[in-house]
Amino acid sequence: MDKRAASRASGLPEIAGARITIIVPALGAGGTEHVVNLIANHWNSTGCTVTLITLEPSDARPYYHFDPAIAVVRLGVPPRKASKLRSALLVLQRLRRLRSAIRRSQPDFVLSFLTRTNVLTLLATIGLEVPVVISERNNPASQPFGPIWRWLQTSLYPRAFGLVTMTQGALDYFPPNIRRNGWVIANPVDLPLDWQNRRGKRILAAVGRLTHQKGFDLLLDAFSRIADAHPEWRLVIWGEGDERLSLEALRDALGLQKRVDMPGITERPGLWIETADAFVLSSRYEGWGIVLLEAMAAGLPVVSFECDWGPRVMITHQSDGILVPREDVEALAKALDRILGDRALREQLGASAAASAQRYMPDQILTEWDVLVSCVLKQASKMHSQTPDNAG
Fold this sequence. Notes:
The structure is a single chain. This protein folds into 2 domains: 3-188 and 362-385, Rossmann fold (3-Layer(aba) Sandwich); 203-359, Glycogen Phosphorylase B (Rossmann fold), CATH 3.40.50.2000. The longest helix is centred in the C-terminal third of the chain and has 24 residues, at 362-385. It starts with a helix and ends in a 7-residue tail after the last helix. The protein contains 13 helices and 13 strands. A 7-stranded parallel sheet has the order 3-2-1-4-5-6-7, with helices on both faces. The chain has helices at 3-10, 31-45, 84-105, 115-124, 147-156, 168-173, 216-226, 244-253, 290-297, 311-314, 329-340, 343-356, 362-385, and strands at 19-23, 49-54, 71-74, 109-113, 132-135, 162-165, 182-184, 203-207, 234-238, 260-264, 278-281, 302-305, 322-324. The radius of gyration is 22 Å and the shape is globular.
């Protein structure tokens, strides 16, 4: 049975043979990159022709494994700090290269991820008869964008064929002219198949980019308040980012040099779940929080700030995790104190978390992405057939 026949037999939307171009800033370690990896490999396996376009340097290497049949086009114009004039020139260069790469990929459908890349993609596809779906992967109400990017977002997003968010709250944030074709598709959870349980060393894990958003400064403050009460526990913060030096300085100032490790990015995806005994998410805001879901799927007890979206959707307080008011350091410290000091509670929450995470298994979520592609291609074909001059 060929892939097209298999698709029909399984009851999935007919998308085999579609040419899909996915645009993302980079293919490093991160939640968005992980989702791109999953859907690109999946669509490739169903018979689609998949092209990935990134802004990365030509010698960049992906963190996740992509099927060799997937074409990866690196434009060599990554985001960088520059003067206003230089920044403007770089944007023009990105637009020219991006438009050229999109045209060469001859897509039936373009999918773009993350706000700035969405704006660039919508600019680069002006005049091209191809449906563009954009995806917001963070909390659009909290992202720190300047007025120019906000204006571009407001002006250009209505041009998109559709918008994908991970929660209903994020979709509802946008005005009707932007969310007229809207899809809510949660992040899937995809743990390594070969992960090994090496737990039992009393490790409290946190994972994410070392940025202001992730709130590791708040976590260090909270942990410092309870560290003496739990001398057998260590905090390990996995990730890399611009705030490494300031976070290390804060750790040292709090006297936590021997209690907190910051080893960087894991050698392979998901490695951190092997040694973690509990997990904490200290983000000031989130679009979803895929590492929280990974921790739950791995059967870890979790504590999280109650971000507006994401954690609030995933966790039922006191049932499969503990939620605390956002940016409330004292409440976070008390919740961690409770978790670290109660093994029975950790076991109960971990078991419930693993059961709850089953809602987000890849097969179910990937089917929702298939439905989106099928819907977009059908609507685009219908609209194109109704155009008076299709040759234009």
